[in-house]
Amino acid sequence: MANTYTQIYIHLVFSPKNRESLIKKEWKDELEKYITGIVQNKGHKMLAIGAMPDHIHIFIGYNVAQAIPDLVEEIKTSSSAWVKYNIKPKSKFSWQRGYGAFSHSRSHMDSVGKYVLDQENRHKKTHFRKEYIHILKKNIVDYEKKYLFDFFAEN
Q1: Is pTM, for the whole model, over 0.85?
Q2: CB under 8 Å, gap of 24 or more: what pairs does 74-80 form?
Q3: What CATH number is given to the structural domain containing 83?
Q4: What is the residue range of 28's domain?
Q5: How many domains does the chain have?
Q6: Helix 68-82 to helix 28-41 angle, to the nearest 10 degrees?
Q7: pLDDT band, very low/low/confident/very high, at 153 (cuts 50, 70, 90)
């Protein structure tokens, strides 16, 4: 009997609408746990997750039974509803259209996992825009600035 074997690691990156700082420190851990549940309930393995006020990194062992766009859509739709229902933020919470998805080899699992978990320290030194463009270039992804997330003037 033939079997299918895969070993795929995906690093997802996306942002709240207009890249606003909508993810609050008081509830980011709960959001990360909720998203972890979504990922794992779909048969993927959560390897690392790191939310910042204006973006999130999710590193998973990817299950090929679900298309990446479908997974991202499910994460965004379900977590937006969860925030609205459970957190009831003062401003409207939603995710921005688009995302980054980057594949990694098994030999990079530790370094990518540490990278995702070290977001707070990383962003003491650099802004998300610079980080995201660096990720695109490092992964040799052709991009057009007009199609990147809506970035506003950095502080």
Answers
A1: yes
A2: 74/38, 74/42, 75/12, 75/35, 75/38, 75/39, 76/14, 78/34, 78/38, 79/31, 79/34, 79/35, 79/38
A3: 3.30.70.1290
A4: 8-147
A5: 1
A6: 140
A7: very low
